[in-house]
Design goal:
CATH superfamily of the largest domain: Spore Coat Polysaccharide Biosynthesis Protein SpsA, Chain A
Strand content: 5-15%
Structural class: alpha/beta
Distance between the termini: 56 Å
Strand order of the largest sheet: 3-2-1-4-8-6-9
Largest sheet: 7 strands, mixed
CATH class of the largest domain: Alpha Beta
Radius of gyration: 28 Å
Number of strands: 10
CATH topology of the largest domain: Spore Coat Polysaccharide Biosynthesis Protein SpsA, Chain A
Length: 715
């Protein structure tokens, strides 16, 4: 059982809050559905009107949920703060008296940019060091990388961090040989090996950043509330360069606080885990969060991909609370740079969320956990429902126009009250639009009522200009995302899954026309075909459908403009789409940018090689070779049939160069200590004419990127 409420929850009834939100959703949905039912009651096309009504009701319910969360979040913030915040359990004057427990800060990575990963770890480490509490924390870089270059870069980045921060014995690196169950398996591997040494772990993503003060506060909240299993911070977006990312960053900064407050108002200690920027109590996590294998095969069976929702549900089943911290800052993540990257990420999430269908009725789960799982599934199915609603409504309207039939809902509630169908339709349209845009208005009102609220976003004029542009931009992109999500859902139901690859975190030079057309060509053709059909059968509908059709027809230029770094920089120079962290960056963000700038200024070094620079460094450079060998396990006394393939790979690598080997073969060589040591000695001993051309070019290549590491090591 969860600990009884303390003084910080006095007067807070979690069940009453859930009932209030549920009542808002039900009343709002039923009211809209009744008006819609009254309008379609007299439709001569019997049967289809019921389908239209059902689709509309399902769509308006999810809009009502968003509106309800924003409404109650606004009320909670305007009443002097929510009494149901976890931070109320630890008044500031008592915080220093709460001792800290041993905590691991872990960052699972897979084929990420090592310089960004290490710069982020450096900033978190320095920030914790400034709190004076560093002695309670250890850091772990947990790699699942299967790209040789990423692997070697991670090892060098870790070694440099240990030297620069004097963090030997506090900052650790491990790369798994067996990459089982992706990120969830990586975290589970950490728990099995080191989990019993720590009471908590703070989980970060490769693009995460969290302030040291925030981490310390989360640990103290865990210590004060001994039946809390997970505390999820509320990460805001930062480091947005492209126009698309800047729009997302601005929207999160402006609208996020109200929605997050509403989410906490609703769920209380039955919250969710988002997979990163959270602190977890390790002992119950290890005891209760072993992920089951789902029935069937992928994409909807097998290993669970979206593990975070399931882990939160399993902890709740065991009686541990899961809390959100909407009122604590200092937590950040990066946004996808383009619409295409956002869609690729959504495709992975869609597959993971649809897998949760198996768990909706799992034994022992709490009702709120089932709600979280259902909403994760429903959030992607909504796109299919919206597309079906648009198509069916369009077909029925075209049918009316071609046959001359009149839409007369008689007898009906509206006509009985003397309300014309036209007025009733207009009222329903306004009500539906209010549900969609009302939450944004509440968020803007909340910001207006804060002292200096707009100043933190660049001033009222720039904020309202950004709101207008953001509304137009996201409105045009909404039908494109609808088509993406509908395609993903249908494809998964047909058995077409996706590979879980590393995300693209940044762009060099922006999004090109070729990539944009490859991703959105189908959307453009669909939009043009839709326009042609309407122009022939029902031209009057073109105006009503223009937001949807415009987004599809112009999806290619919209996506390319959104992926433009130049436009993002121009918007920033004019004060558009700004966030508080951008205008007044905290020290952690400044240190991250400075570290990345130093890395860029050091020059390309081995990265200047067009192919396999990591392999070249691991074989040629004595310093890199030594680090890599120290991190490998020496497998002595191997049978001859095991050694023979490695001998063949080594000779082929020296004679024909890395292009003669597959990525799997290169990884095998780099994983074998004997082969790495032999290659290092042999490449320096053999005459150049006995080596492949690639090796001779690598021998002549400058190693500027390693100079600072070697100089530091020698000093």
């Amino acid at each position: 059982m969860i600990s009884p409420p303390g003084p910080w929850t006095a007067g807070v009834c979690a069940a009453g809050r859930k009932m209030a939100v549920l009542a808002f959703i039900v009343v709002t949905t039923v009211a809209a559905a009744l008006v819609m039912a009254d309008l379609v009651w007299g439709m001569p096309m019997r049967g289809w009107n019921g389908v239209v009504l059902l689709l509309y009701t399902m769509l308006v319910s999810i809009a009502a949920l968003g509106a309800g969360l924003a409404f109650f979040g606004f009320l909670a913030r305007r009443r002097g703060g929510d009494a149901g915040l976890l931070t109320r359990s630890l008044p500031p004057e008592e915080a220093a008296a709460v001792p800290l427990a041993r905590t691991a800060v872990i960052m699972p990575v897979c084929n990420e940019d090592a310089r960004r990963v290490c710069a982020g770890l450096r900033a978190v480490y320095r920030s914790l060091e400034r709190t004076g509490q560093l002695e309670h924390f250890d850091f772990f870089l947990l790699s699942d990388s299967d790209e040789p270059d990423c692997w070697i870069d991670e090892e060098l980045g870790w070694a440099e961090l240990c030297r620069e921060l004097d963090a030997s014995g506090r900052l650790f690196y491990r790369r798994r040989r067996a990459r089982v169950n992706k990120k969830a398996g990586n975290v589970a591997d950490f728990c099995r090996r080191w989990g019993r040494r720590y009471r908590y772990m703070v989980v970060l993503d490769a693009d995460s950043l969290i302030a040291g003060g925030t981490v310390v506060q989360m640990v103290r909240l865990m210590e004060r509330n001994r039946r809390v299993g997970i505390i999820q911070s509320a990460p805001f977006l930062f480091r947005a360069e492209t126009l698309f990312a800047r729009v997302l960053q601005f929207g999160m900064s402006l609208y996020g606080p109200v929605f997050l407050s509403g989410l906490n108002y609703w769920q209380q200690g039955e919250g969710n885990y988002w997979g990163h920027n959270a602190i977890i109590r390790i002992a119950p996590f290890m005891r209760h969060c072993s992920l089951p294998a789902l029935p069937g095969r992928e994409p909807l069976g097998g290993r669970i991909l979206s593990h975070d929702f399931v882990e939160a549900a399993l902890l709740r089943r065991a009686g541990w609370a899961v809390w959100l911290l909407p009122d604590v800052g200092g937590s950040y993540e990066e946004a996808p740079p383009t619409l295409i990257d956002a869609a690729r990420r959504d495709r992975r999430w869609c597959q993971g969320n649809l897998q949760h269908t198996w768990l909706l009725f799992a034994r022992g789960l709490r009702p709120m956990s089932r709600v979280h799982l259902f909403l994760g599934i429903y959030s992607y199915c909504v796109s299919v429902l919206w597309l079906l609603f648009l198509l069916l409504s369009l077909l029925l309207t075209v049918g009316f126009n071609r046959t001359g039939l009149t839409w007369v809902p008689d007898p009906g509630i509206g006509t009985t009250l003397g309300i014309s169908p036209t007025l009733e339709s207009a009222a329903l349209f306004v009500f539906t639009v209010s549900l969609v845009f009302g939450p944004k208005l509440l968020a803007v009102a909340d910001r207006m009522l804060q002292r200096g609220g707009f100043a933190r976003l660049g001033g009222a004029g720039r904020v309202f200009a950004s709101i207008a542009l953001e509304s137009v931009f996201t409105g045009l992109l909404a039908p494109v995302l609808m088509m993406f999500h509908a395609k993903f859902v249908v494809g998964l139901l047909l058995g077409r899954g996706t590979r879980w690859l590393a995300q693209r975190r940044s762009l060099d030079g922006g999004l090109g026309w070729k990539e944009a057309w490859r991703a959105h060509g189908g959307h453009t053709l669909l939009g043009l075909g839709w326009v042609a059909v309407l122009a022939r059968l029902s031209p009057s509908l073109l105006g009503w459908m223009s937001p949807v059709l415009g987004g599809l027809v112009f999806s290619v230029p919209l996506s390319r403009l959104g992926g433009s770094i130049r436009l993002g920089q121009r918007a920033r120079s004019r004060g558009l789409f700004c966030s508080p962290e951008e205008l007044a960056p905290p020290r952690e963000l400044t240190e991250l940018e400075e570290a990345l700038a130093r890395t860029d200024a050091a020059g390309p070094g081995w990265r200047g090689l067009k192919t396999d620079p990591g392999l070249a460094r691991a074989v040629f450079d004595p310093f890199v070779n030594a680090i890599h060998l120290c991190l490998l396990r020496d497998r002595a006394n191997r049978a001859e049939e095991v050694r023979q393939p490695f001998e063949i790979y080594r000779e082929k690598l020296l004679r024909d160069g890395p292009d003669a080997l597959s990525r799997k073969e290169k990884l095998a060589l780099l994983s074998d200590a004997e082969s790495v040591d032999w290659l290092h000695r042999e490449v320096w001993r053999r005459p150049p004419d006995k080596l492949a051309t690639w090796w001779r070019r690598a021998l002549e290549h400058p190693a500027r990127a390693d100079d600072r590491v070697e100089d530091g090591a020698s000093s």
